[in-house]
Amino acid sequence: MADLNQAKNIGGVGAILTILSVVPSVGPVLSIVGLVLVLLALKWISEIVQNPAIFRNALIAVVVAIVGVAIGAVVGGVGVFSVLTGVGAGGPNGMDFARLFTTIIIALVVVWLFAVVSAVFFRRSLNLTGDHLNVKMFRTAGLLVLIGAVLTIVIVGAVISLVANILLAVAFFQIRASPPPPPPPPPSS
User: Fold this and answer.
1) Could you tell me the pTM of the whole model?
2) DSSP 32-101
3) What are the pLDDT digits (tens) for 146-155?
């Protein structure tokens, strides 16, 4: 099993790689590698603090995001194909730009809805991580991940998501080598 120092380094580097997703041509690859490293760090942290919900919520977030992109691609692809080939309502009367536009909007809304659900689970994971390690920056990053996902529909969310990833990297690098002691039990009356 890894220790918190390894989780700190792997998670921090992973978060930095997700920030580099805007780099042309290699950005998506860096983002995927970064996401895997962040997941690995959260897995190690969940084992160290003995709370499997940390990793489970993060894994659910990733699976929901992947499913959302896949469903959005299928909806968009089928819709665009049907418009371009004239299959479906209206027949082959040339390209129907209104249907094409509607199809693309529906696909984007599907992806957006899945992204918001994914962000809820990732926020839960980061909140638990912050609580167990006493690093409140995880909670802030989680909140910004959720706000960024919700506001992505109006573009400003992408900037907020970028800030969230920067704060996530900072949060990982704030982890101390040993976990803080558990809080004392509440006084009994």
Assistant:
1) 0.84
2) HHHHHHHHHHHHHHHHHTT-HHHHHHHHHHHHHHHHHHHHHHHHHHHHHHHHHHT-STT-SSS--HHHHH
3) 999 999 988 8
